[in-house]
Amino acid sequence: MNIVLDVQGLSKGFTMHHLDSRLAAFSDISFDLRAGEFLLLKGQNGAGKSTLLRTLYRTYLAQDGKVLFHSDHGVIDLVRAADVDVTHLRRTEIGFVTQFLVARPRVSAEALVAEPLRMAGWSAERALEEARHWLRAFGVKESLWRAYPTTFSGGEQQKVNLARALILPQKLLLLDEPTASLDAGARAALVARLRELKDGGTAMIGVFHHPDDVEHLIDRVIDLTPDAPQMEDREDVVV
Ligand SMILES: Nc1ncnc2c1ncn2[C@@H]1O[C@H](COP(=O)(O)OP(=O)(O)OP(=O)(O)O)[C@@H](O)[C@H]1O
Ligand SMILES: [Mg+2]
Known about the structure:
With about 240 residues, the chain is α/β, with parallel strands linked by helices. Helices cover about 30% and strands about 30% of the residues. It has a single domain, classed as 3-Layer(aba) Sandwich (Rossmann fold), CATH 3.40.50.
């Protein structure tokens, strides 16, 4: 399968101005990822898992290294890419799922989920139909589809968040503990959708609170625990 991501010598630290010191979140990370591969990030709290995902998504700027993304339009280094290109890639090729829905006032659940399809040129009617399919798949009650998610429970918001984030297949999908507040039914729906996306060629990098959920999807593991061997092949690993 084709290479999607080639990460070379990536390092990120934070300057703590009030302490006049620097904190290294991670340093000299290298790996590559092909279409349809699933990479699990693990490590204790504070090991740098979320920071690595945010650096790959360019929410954080790396200190050093390269993140070569093989986009539909050629290879682009996400560390050095212009903001406008990063924004475009986030809309079309790179997805990021966190534990939190960014709900907007007076935007219904179904409209929020349909939005990525609308932006990709789908008609309003088809987009809404597809949105309702995914809201149902993740277990959002039909009575909530036209309501505003700002008032939903944490788990309900997360289901809307997943429906929106996973409705369109992406080339690269980053996942930061997406199962944290989900019930068993929604966790199963998420794993089924990830399996479908993986089979369709989406490359994924994820942090999971319960790695057992995704056990059969994992191809490789990176352990960010200090002094742990960085990259392990799936065969050698007990998650
Ligand atoms: N914006 C920031 N400014 C300063 N320090 C930060 C910032 N973001 C993260 N850190 C620090 O970087 C380290 C790694 O944090 P990170 O959130 O990546 O950990 P994690 O592995 O995701 O942990 P958890 O399992 O708790 O989610 C922590 O010590 C954290 O305090
Ligand atoms: Mg984290």
